[in-house]
Write a structure and sequence with these properties.
InterPro entries: Phage_lambda_TipM. By secondary structure, the chain is mostly beta strands. It has one domain. The chain has one helix and six strands.
């Protein structure tokens, strides 16, 4: 399995929404339970700022994985890599710097 080794620009957001199954009863009561055994997977909204002549390396890496194949990536402030997929990314080409905005989704397999 390949490893994504580029460092994200500051300002990463990590929206977290555990998958929960809810059954609502009368009078406002409800019962909640985890929806599956891996219900706490995270997604990471990232931006990479790289010199324009290096941007094709990131774009090519993501393109080769095609939103289907997993790869390893170590989130900032963590020590262990996690398995992620990237289903969409958007390069914004400047005169000297290219910004690539993407979303990494944590997966189990």
């Amino acid at each position: 399995m390949e490893t994504f080794h580029w460092c994200a620009a500051p300002g990463m957001s990590v929206p977290t929404e555990p998958k929960v199954r809810v059954v609502k009863f009368g009078d406002g009561y409800e019962q909640r339970q985890p929806n599956g055994i891996n219900n706490k997977l995270r997604s990471y909204s990232l931006t990479f700022r790289v010199p324009r002549h290096e941007a094709w390396l990131i774009d090519d890496f993501l393109y080769q994985h095609g939103g289907v194949e997993t790869f390893l990536w170590t989130p900032p402030h963590r020590y262990e890599p996690i398995k992620v997929v990237c289903r969409k990314w958007t390069p914004s080409v400047g005169s000297t710097v290219t910004e690539i905005s993407c979303e990494f989704e944590e997966v189990v397999a």
